[in-house]
Each structure stands twice: as structure tokens, then as C-alpha cells.
Amino acid sequence: MSVLRRLAGLWRLTGLRVHTGSGGYHFYFTSRQPLRSKLLARGDGWEVELYGTGKNLVLPPSVHPDTGREYKWSTEPPWDALEMGVEFPLPDEALLA
Q: Could you tell me the CA-to-CA distances from 89 to 4, 33, 50 in Å, in that order?
């Protein structure tokens, strides 16, 4: 199974999804090890980039500087589960892509 197909399957399951102010999406995973940022795939008008250690993210309710639209949670995050230490692990094969 391709890395992107595996990630797509996990994205449907994770509660950590954000609709960005530019009209895109951010999906959040956890990792127990530091990792470098890397571009996993790029197409016509889209890309999948893994943001690694030290990279800054934008979270709701931030406002996009160009569009003026808010970043919004696609689904309410499972805050209770996160506080209890439940993780949304990044698939190992994504680190090898």
C-alpha cells in the first residue's frame, strides 16, 4: 500500500483535521521521535508535506493573512482522549518516503 493511500486512510480516522483559511486542509499526527520536514507528494495545485520537529503550524481560530478567513476544526478534536495521552501515530512508512 502506498504511503499516501495509508495516510489518506488514517486522515479519515483521526479527529485532528483543520480546514485552512486558504481552502486547504491540515491533518495532525503524533510521533515519538524527532523527524525532519519533507515533501511527500505534489500535484497540480496541491501538495502533501510532513512538518517535522521545529516547524511552526497554524491552528484554529487563526485567520489566514491573505484571505481573512479563519482556520476551523473539521471535526471537534477529541480533547479528553488527547489529555489522557491517546496518540494519532504517523505511519512508519511515511518516514521512509
A: 15, 11, 13
Inform me whether the pLDDT recorded for 97 exceeds 80: no
Residue 71 and residue 64 in contact, taking contact as beta carbons nearer than 8 Å: yes
Length of the chain: 97
Cα separations (Å) of 50 from 25, 69, 83, 95? 13, 24, 24, 9
Q: Is this model's pTM higher than 0.70 or not? A: no
Q: Rounded to an integer, what distance in angstroms lies between the CA atom of residue 6 and that of residue 91?
A: 8
- β-bridge pairing 17-19 and 38-43: unpaired
CA distance 33 to 35: 6
